[in-house]
Amino acid sequence: MQQGTLFNSISLSVGDVTRYLRELLDSDDLLRDVWVMGEVSNASTPASGHLYFTLKDQTATLKCVMWKPQVMRLRFPLRAGMAIEVHGAVSVYEQGGQYQLYADSIRAVGEGALYQEFLLLKNQLEAEGLFDNDRKRALPEMPAKIGIVTSPTGAALQDMLNTLRRRYPLAEVLVSPAAVQGDAAPVEIVAALKRLNADPKVDVILVARGGGSLEDLWAFNDERVVRAVANSRAPVISGVGHETDFTLTDFAADLRAPTPTAAAELATPDRLDMAQRLSELTQRLADSLGSRLDGAAEDCERLRSRLERVSPLGSINNQRQRLDELSLRQAVAWQHRLQYLRVENKGWQQRLAALNPYAVLQRGYAIVSNSEGQVIHSRAQVSEQAVLAIQVSDGKFKVRVTDTRPGEEQ
Amino acid sequence: MKDQTNDDLNGLSYEKAFQELEQIVEKLENNQGTLDESMGLFERGQKLAQHCAGLLEAAELKVQQLDPTTAQKEESAS
Questions:
Q1: What CA–CA distance (Å, rounded) separates A292 from A270?
Q2: Which of A40, A114, A156, A405 is the most buried (most CB within 10 A)?
């Protein structure tokens, strides 16, 4: 039945077959959402930024492609021979006629197992109450001494120091170095924390590490580290890895920061904000004294006007005026008195002059005195031949007594 | 600690100085005390404000690094 076979076999175009295959694969639940484990080979990233590589094991190879946006979120570059697990969907590239894995996420082999371990420990410590919110301590508003546990050579330390320098240079920083990846890291981190807690001036601690693979950050999921952070004397801010990385240390810390830089920011106030607050406070200080002084001045003025109402000042002024008048009157009276005294004095002088015996001499009288200077009042005082002095108005002269017999009176 | 001069604010931390300044402003704003006391408080407040501003201006981050080996010796010694 030649014809029959001819009519029975429908020939499809290449495109039809390829689309059919694609729809078949796309509708398969397993292939739409699958993790594939294998070894990397032929990884290449052309200018487009997309990543092409092949996964292989002993028996087969699988072409893989990852688009640029997902490539940028990769935490490590792919190298040939690397064992990885790739998540994505298996579909068909129609032009190339090949099926391939459209990858959206890549992790190192073993990360899946680590994640299980992580969840287990997280549940256990959570049940213990290690992550409880009421265990979280308040952070100092203005820390005096900031402890940092991190690698002394990492970029994270410089990021944190730069941030602290910019925001809050008032602080002292004590760096307690520790390996932050590798087998020795957990023990070193615990010891570094202990050393910082031994300094009583340290009032906040940053536990930090820059980004890396899940394995790189694994020390921060170590139970010893997590417990040391939870039991730290000084409150702890964790800043481990990138925004999307969560470690158990983050849960145990008093505050989780997405990055080391953010941890330094969360630990400190910003100098500019502080300056702003300070200038506001300084303004309030000036205003408060100003209003205090205004108030005092008002009180003073009120009292002054009250005082004025009850003041004896009016009567004092009256008294003052009266005093002026009295002293004026006194001065006038004194002048009168003085004048009177002067006049009276002149009268006395005249009377005194009248009594002056020498004034009589002017009128022709004379004063007779003996050689002893005694004034002669009587005949009995003289004897014959005695020399007597005669004082007249312009001087003295001498005479001799010739006769002491009583003469005829005139 | 290193230079204790006659200035009694020397060595006073920013936080302490700022807190005291806040208290002084609140006291003054509540208008407590005599005018003399208020003047005294104001003068103290001005000093504190200058001290704080000076600290903000001049501060330089002091960074010190622990040496794990010596620190461990101290630990075992104590």
A1: 33
A2: A156
pLDDT surpassing 60 at residue A3: no
Amino acid at A274: M
Convert the pLDDT of each residue in A65-95 to its tens digit. 999 999 988 877 888 888 889 999 999 999 9
* CATH class of the domain whose range is A13-109: mainly beta
Compute the CA torsion angle B3, B8, B11, B16 (nearest 10 deg): 180
Topology of A140-269 in CATH?
Rossmann fold (3.40.50)
* Confidence band, pLDDT 50/70/90 cuts, at residue B7: low
Contact A156, A260 (CB under 8 A): yes
ipTM: 0.77
| CA distances from residue A145 to A175, A271, A322, B31 in whole angstroms, order as listed | 10, 16, 80, 37
Model pTM above 0.80: no
Is B13 in CB contact (< 8 Å) with chain A?
Answer: yes
Contacts of A51 (CB under 8 A, 6+ apart): A43, A44, A45, A65, A66, A71, A74, A78, A103
Where are the domains positioned within chain A? Answer: 13-109, 140-269, 359-400
- Give pLDDT tens digits for A161-172: 999 999 999 999
d(CA A115, CA A119): 6
Give chain A positions within 8 Å (CB) of B35: 292-293, 296
Question: Tens digit of pLDDT for each residue in A162-218?
Answer: 999 999 999 999 999 999 988 899 999 999 999 999 999 999 999 999 988 777 888
pLDDT tens-digit readout, A15-35: 999 999 999 999 999 999 999
**Contact yes or no for A355/A361 (Cβ under 8 A):** no
Residue of chain A nearest B32, judged by CA positions: A292
**A-contacting residues in B 16-75 (Cβ below 8 Å):** 18, 21-22, 24-25, 28-29, 31, 35, 38-39, 42, 45-46, 49, 52-53, 55-56, 59-66, 68, 71-72, 75
- Indicate the residue of B28, B46, B66 with minimum beta-carbon distance to A174: B66
> Chain A residues with CB inside 8 Å of B38's CB?
289, 292
Sign of CA dihedral A38, A39, A40, A42: negative
In sign, the C-alpha dihedral spanning A304, A306, A308, A312 is negative
Positive/negative CA dihedral, A255, A260, A261, A264: positive
Residues of chain B in contact with residue A288, where contact means CB-CB under 8 angstroms, are 25, 28-29, 42
Closest by Cβ to B38, choosing from A277, A281, A292: A292
